[in-house]
Amino acid sequence: DTPAAAYEPSMTTLGEIQVEIPGRKADDPVITDEEFQRGAKIYFERCAGCHGVLRKGATGKPLTPDVTRALGYDYLQNFITYGSPAGMPNWGTSGELTEADVDLMARYILMEPPAPPEFGMPEMKETWKLIVAPEDRPKEKLNDIDIDNLFSVTLRDAGQIALIDGKTYDIHAIIDTGYAVHISRISASGRYLFVIGRDAKIVMIDLWMETPAAVAEIKIGTEARSVETSKFEGYEDKYAIAGAYWPPQYVIMDGDTLEPKKIVSTRGNIYDEQTYHPEPRVAAILASHYKPEFIVNVKETGKIVMVDYTDLKNLKTTEIEAERFLHDGGLDSTHRYFITAANARNKLVVIDTKESKLVAITDTGGATPHPGRGANFTHPEFGPVWATSHLGDESVALIGTDPEGHPDNAWKIVDSFEALGGGSLFIKTHPKSNHLYVDATLNPDAETSASVAVFKIDEMKADAEPEYTTLPIGEWAGIAEGQPRVVQPEFNREGTEIWFSVWNAKDKESAIVVVDDKTLELKKVIKDPRLITPTGKFNVFNTRGDVY
Ligand code: DHE
Q1: 99-108 and 33-42 helices cross at what angle (nearest 10)?
Q2: From the record, what ranges are coiled-coil (predicted)?
């Protein structure tokens, strides 16, 4: 029962395709039914995230048959095998796909992409399970876990999360969630944890139970990445929202039960060209602290939609023209401004969540900004800034975020400097920390991808490139086998320790490495056979309060 099983391939175009494939006679079928099914599954699991379900392209290039047939089988087979410096993984030489699968995929993408089915209210209702009704849940917290200092750790390939104690490092629970779990978000009260998998399954976990466990679940599509809950005063824990890659839509659900209330399609016209796009995927979603609104990034059409959740029947949305390929982002330290990356356009977009208006669109000067939620700190000379690192190069860019105190710097890139190398996914600091941490997870060099750069904030200067210390996190983890990558720094509740995932292959040992923020010394290596492929870590307090 894989998510790809939902994809009903359409075989109608097969007879029309003329492509020369080495080793095949002209009248051999290009692909068999069985191969097509397998190709659809591999495409969903490995390729759709970047190239889109309909292969129209986003982070990755378009792969519609007009493009792929012009490139031809040999080119595609080579490209899938060896990858490219622009970010295409080397699926063949890394061993992640066999030679036979590379051959299959090169043939598969010559075909018309199968249009996966829609997923509306009947389908959602069918998958919705209220496991424990609100009236049957605990009336008070039944465990002695310090919930605010709990970490929800994604165990990506196990389809689970681990709840790890921020003080004792004990694993309180391992909970089954969706396929290729992506992120966790926490309700405003801190009681409910929402986890979403790539298969668009959301699992809602009650942290008050004696042993925290799932109380509701639902599937909101066939592919998704984002989930969030209402945070505005008076609406705490009232609604949850999730955004799907397929079908392109967002869904507002009851915050207590996950009952779907309202589905809104994001299909529409691209903001600048004003031409129709059939697959505008929903990327990051944040909850406004200033208004009863959700902030929804719509990737391919380049729009940020402010969704007012006070009246779902007469839904008011404000559609902001931003930039194409919106991906991830976070709030500034005052929580008033939302700063988000239009990654394939090398831009940051700034939204004022108090006025629900565009403030600025700024070029970062780097290639493919990828901030996660970003990092807020006060630069000694530039004042309050928000930082992003980049997937496509080694640079870190700082954008001024204080229009009142430092108007000349506001929404401008005030500084840019080098960290370890390209392939960075996440950057992090904490209001109590003097350190800025930058990973290099996808860097091709094994040592670099297993290390983290740390900058001292109080030593940063306007006219000098800051120096950094390299922490050999992977080495500290003491893992003998595989090529573990270090990913996503996350602080504990007090802001005294920072946690890193050491992300290895599914069948190899992984770990979480905890570093003392003051001394930059190793504090703890958390290892457990159940910690399979840890990626994201979400501290309950920092996540619900947007502390980063
Ligand atoms: Fe993510 C956040 C999409 C690959 C780990 N990822 C996000 C968000 C989006 C997204 C839209 C923002 C959610 C929000 O804030 O509401 N990620 C995608 C992709 O489309 C992409 C590029 C390819 C794919 O097929 O999924 C992708 N992401 C990855 C990974 O390879 C990572 C490292 C491991 C994995 O799980 O697949 C990964 N993504 C994460 C993490 C976050 C995230 C840990 C949350 C960061 C945070 O601090 O909030």
Answers
A1: 100
A2: none
Beta-sheet strands, E only, within 149-254? 150-155, 160-165, 171-176, 181-186, 192-197, 201-206, 213-219, 223-229, 239-246, 249-254
Q: Percent of the chain beyond pLDDT 90?
A: 82
Q: Which H helix or E strand runs over 78?
A: helix 73-82
Classify the complex by whether its ipTM is higher than 0.90, answering yes or no: yes
End-to-end Cα spacing for the chain: 38
Adjacent-strand bridge partners of 362 = 348
User: What confidence category does residue 321 fall into, taking pLDDT thresholds of 50, 70 and 90?
Assistant: very high
Helix (H, G, I), strand (E, B) or coil at 158: helix
Cβ of 47 closer than 6 Å to ligand 1, yes or no, is no
Lowest mean pLDDT among 25-34, 346-355, 408-417: 25-34
- Provide the residue count of the chain: 548
Count other C-beta atoms under 10 Å from residue 150's C-beta: 26
Residues marked as catalytic: 47, 50-51, 88, 327, 370
Per the CB < 8 A criterion, the answer to whether 517 and 498 are in contact is yes
pLDDT(9) > 60: no
Q: Is 59 in the pocket of ligand 1 (CB under 6 A)?
A: yes
Q: Is any atom of ligand 1 closer than 6 Å to the C-beta of 536?
A: yes
Assign residue 286 a region: left if phi > 0, alpha if psi is -120 to 50, beta otherwise?
beta
pTM, two decimals, is 0.90
CA 327 to ligand 1: nearest atom = 11
Residue with CA at minimum distance from ligand 1 atom 6:
225
Asked if residue 85 has a cis previous peptide bond (ω within 30° of 0), the answer is: no
Cα 265 to Cα 152: distance, rounded to the nearest angstrom? 30
